[in-house]
Design a protein that fits this description.
Radius of gyration: 23 Å
Shape: globular
Distance between the termini: 55 Å
Number of domains: 2
Bound molecules: cobalamin, iron/sulfur cluster
CATH class of the largest domain: Alpha Beta
Number of helices: 17
Number of strands: 15
Strand content: 15-25%
């Protein structure tokens, strides 16, 4: 009989800063590949359904799958382990598999920390999971599948990596129909898609490039626009986010993608993220013409010294120039910032905050706290230097300080981040007041921000 697979998205810790739920692309692709090969597959999205552990137990008991696959980032790792344990209790004969950006670099430890995990799938999961399911169906051994780590004869075996999928067009579109799409779209009327995998840079803090490879693999413009059209026809979607880490690495492809959208007459709005050194004013103009309204940039820092330490490969001058173009063209720039990277001082952090206010005065900067995710050189450095203070992964949501260096304490880093937001909101309130346009919504944002700060302080005590 063909195995029945249930894929699971764990909940994030209660206090973590979280995004609106949506149909996750990672699980969506895995499900689509299994469906294409005629396996029965379903999804339990604990985050979206707000399921408690007991709710999950009931749900998985009802379904009794043969294979349970749980995804996990660092933030959801602990929650994923709890679900795997429950799945084994509720379906004692099931095989449990975990995958995602955390366990890829925590494979042996995950097997050690959770005896209920049978197999860890590292990096890109589609072909590995498919082979595993096929082996299980055929009753064959699955201890030597490429891209997995598992136990054999009481020992942990890390099988060699599986080569990346070269032809991304060969993948089916993510199986979004396994999520209650109507309900999801009540949260947010935006659909997410990914047009590429991997990156050509090698930033010290980044998990993605170590997950998906230091090579930019991309879908063809035709394949991407086919998906846009499909989503438009199926769900009536008009707003999209491209989740790629660096959407414009291949500029001719981005241009061709825009031409394809225009040629097919798709009236859509979209946003994307990229690097400042991989975009031109002409390309931005073309993107705007094709429906782009906002671009997210990994600005990271306003000081060259910290950018160099991050191995980011950009300069503050270039960031000023590019964000200037973005605003000039009437697009919305979203600067993403990392405060507290090793080498950061209070002085450099404030320089960055002021820098962000200068380059994007109307946008709230995304001030992340430098978080050492396993698998990154930043994690190795922080461990090696003895700077790591917080080992509870529930705190790795990029808002909580996790380590301190001789140049910056955790307390100061926390204060800097709070300071950055206060500065922004107070400045904004001031501007509104000046224009006599101070709104209730602005006041509410300030109050919400203050409450979040108080919560943060209480947690730190
Ligand atoms: C979209 C996105 C989000 C979305 C959705 C998150 C998600 N779980 O998919 C939202 C906005 C919610 C989000 C939030 C956060 N994110 Co985010 N996000 C991304 C982003 C840009 C794309 C994810 C994606 O769709 N990739 C495409 C799919 C195809 O790849 P994939 O998700 O890795 O899935 C493949 C494999 O991992 C594997 N796999 C995954 N799950 C499973 C499960 C099984 C059973 C198997 C077999 C295989 C498997 O197979 C999949 C198919 O090949 C990635 C960067 C990236 N390019 O991956 C960051 C990334 C995942 N996010 C990151 C971070 C830090 C966060 C936040 C903590 C912080 C923040 N400030 O936003 C939160 C945490 C949220 C959470 N619940 O875990 C880090 C994760 C690092 C880590 N070790 O955890 C990443 C890698 C970015 C980076 N540069 O380092 N994020
Ligand atoms: S440019 Fe972005 S995706 Fe590429 S390595 Fe740096 S942070 Fe990661």
């Amino acid at each position: 009989m063909k195995p029945h697979v249930t894929l699971v998205n764990p909940t994030a810790p209660v206090d973590a800063a979280m995004h609106m739920p949506f149909a996750l692309l990672g699980l969506g692709y895995l499900a689509a590949v299994l469906e294409k090969n005629n396996y029965q597959v379903d999804v339990i999205d604990c985050q979206m359904l707000k399921l408690s552990l007991e709710d999950f137990r009931r749900e998985i008991s009802k379904r009794q799958p043969d294979i349970v696959g749980v995804t996990s980032s660092t933030l959801t790792y602990k929650s994923a382990l709890k679900l795997v344990k429950i799945a084994k209790e509720a379906c004692p004969n099931c095989i449990t598999v975990v995958g995602g950006s955390h366990v890829t670099f925590w494979d042996d430890k995950a097997l050690e920390e959770c005896p209920e995990i049978d197999i860890v799938i590292r990096r890109e999961g589609e072909n590995t999971l498919l082979e595993l399911v096929q082996r299980i169906e055929a009753g064959k051994s699955y201890h030597d599948v490429l891209g997995t780590t598992c136990r054999k004869d009481g020992k942990t075996v890390r099988n060699p990596d599986r080569p990346y999928i070269e032809d991304l067009d060969s993948l089916p579109f993510p199986a979004r129909h396994l999520w209650p799409m109507e309900r999801l779209r009540e949260y947010e009327d935006i659909l997410y898609l990914a047009t590429s995998r991997g990156c050509v840079y090698w930033c010290e803090f980044c998990t993605t490039v170590r997950m998906h490879g230091r090579k930019y693999r991309m879908r063809s413009p035709k394949n991407v626009v086919d998906e846009l059209e499909f989503l438009h026809k199926t769900y009536g979607a008009k707003k999209f986010t491209f989740c790629d880490d660096a959407f414009t690495v291949d500029q001719p492809r981005t241009e061709a993608l825009c031409s394809e959208i225009l040629q097919r007459g798709l009236k859509i709005e979209w946003n994307c993220g990229t690097r400042v050194d991989m975009i031109t004013k002409d390309l931005l103009m073309k993107m705007k013409e094709a429906g782009c309204i906002s671009v997210w940039f990994g600005v990271e820092s306003g000081t060259q010294q910290v950018l160099d330490a991050m191995k980011k490969g950009i300069t503050p001058e270039l960031t000023i120039k590019v964000l200037g173009w973005v605003r000039e063209l009437g697009l919305k720039p979203v600067p993403n910032v990392i405060l507290g990277f090793p080498g950061e001082t209070k002085k450099s952090a404030w320089k960055t905050i002021k820098f962000v206010e200068k380059i994007a005065p109307d946008a709230v900067g995304f001030y992340n706290v430098a978080t050492p995710f396993p698998g990154t050189p930043m994690y190795d450095l922080v461990k090696e230097k003895g700077w790591l203070r917080v080992t509870d992964f529930d705190m790795y949501d990029t808002t909580h300080p996790i380590f301190e260096t001789p140049y910056l304490s955790m307390k100061d880093l926390g204060k800097l981040r709070e300071g950055a937001f206060h500065h922004y909101y107070l400045r904004r309130a001031f501007i509104f007041e000046k224009k006599r346009r101070f709104k209730v919504s602005t006041a509410m944002i300030i109050v919400a921000n203050l409450i979040a700060d108080i919560k943060l302080k209480l947690r730190r005590k």
